Amino acid sequence: MTMQDAPKETVAPADRSLTRRITWATWSGWGLDGFTNQMFPLALAGILLALGLTKAEGGLISSATLIASAIGGVIGGRLADRFGRVQVLVIVIGAYALFTALTATSQDFSQLLLWRTLEGLAFGAEWPVGAALMAEYASPERRGRVLAWVQSAWAVGWAGANLAYMVTGLIWAPEVAWRVMFLLGILPALVALVIRRKLRDVPRTQVTREPHQRGVFRELFGQELRRRTIIGTLFGATGLGSTYALQTWIPAYLLQERGLSVTGTAMYVWFMIAGNWLGYVLGGHVHDLIGRRRAFTVFYLSTAVSGIMFLLVAIDALWYNLMLSTLLGFFLAAQASGKGALFTELFPARVRGTGAGITYNFGRGLAALSPALIGWASAQLGLGQAIAIVLLVCTVLAIFFVWLLPETKGWQLD
């Protein structure tokens, strides 16, 4: 079934002002995602020290958060399809802000696991809601770059988390600084109120379902959409597995295996963030130019090469390592920049939010095994080598699965 075959949705014509507000509201949501989510990898070394946890326990908490986000993504997408995008977007932003702040109160492994799991539920719900909202207002020929621009906010949020990491690290000891960082996570709740005020008049996407049509999950796993749903999820899982292998453990790798200080680690991360932002902005143009499958192939291979060079090819030259940090950040973002377009283009409007939530966030849940596996394997192989092996395996699988999906470049959404 193509998008042209699906029943048409009724959407009020969007004027330029409305589209602009939607773009910036969705952009801010993704930026807040980056801010709250990237706090944990940066704070991980201090958390392990303060609570007396092992690397394996740290990896387990990362994995539990990601698994919860998979469940949250499915729930969020389903709610967005049923009740509208904006209303659900505001609720989930406020929820993950609250649970991020409560993480600061953790006194042991079980409390940390609880708050991170609840934060993951809300965090996962935000992505499919924002992606569906933005995809429905973007023109087909620009959809890749528009969603990539929105996703570039992740790098801005990551920069905010890195700044918080630097400032708190200079003022407080590591076992205290991480708590202050997570208290700052309440800030997104204030932004959610602004989003709600500015977008309360946005028309909901209304889709008329015929009496003979099946339920959402029966349709997604029915004959027409089953292949897209399953292979899309496997692609999401393996692709995010390579991303999480790097993003979760690189700060700890720099501190523990490279022997860098907090300031030195933050400097590497700054260069990675700069490359990350450029990767999001420019990567979307490449996805629109050469197609989703070719772009994903180029960017995943480039991520693997630059990541393995960063981890395993030791050259004692600052310029070399900072260049690799920038390239690694660029390719990580460039491959991620096409996912918002791809996962929304695969499904008709009546199941778009739920379909995107399953393929991206259930894939995220499977990818959650990556940080835990690295934490366990690092005791036998060393952290750098463990990251490199997981990165390579996930890259090969992601490229394989994306070529089993249809090329969606230029598809007209219903």
Molecular structure report:
The chain is mainly alpha-helical and about 425 residues long. It has a single domain (about 15-190, about 225-400), classed as Growth Hormone, Chain: A (Up-down Bundle). Helices cover about 80% and strands about 0% of the residues. The chain contains 18 helices and two strands. It has helices spanning about 15-35, 40-50, 55-85, 85-105, 110-135, 145-150, 155-170, 175-185, 185-200, 215-220, 225-255, 260-290, 290-310, 320-335, 340-345, 350-365, 370-380, 385-400, and strands at about 10, 205. Strands 1-2 form a two-stranded antiparallel sheet. α3 (about 55-85) packs antiparallel against α4 (about 85-105). The longest helix has about 30 residues, at about 225-255. The protein starts with 8 loop residues before the first strand and ends in a 12-residue tail after the last helix. The relative contact order is 0.18. The model is unreliable at about 1-15 and about 200-210 (pLDDT under 50). InterPro entries: MFS, MFS_dom, MFS_trans_sf, Sugar_transporter_CS. This is Putative major facilitator superfamily transporter.
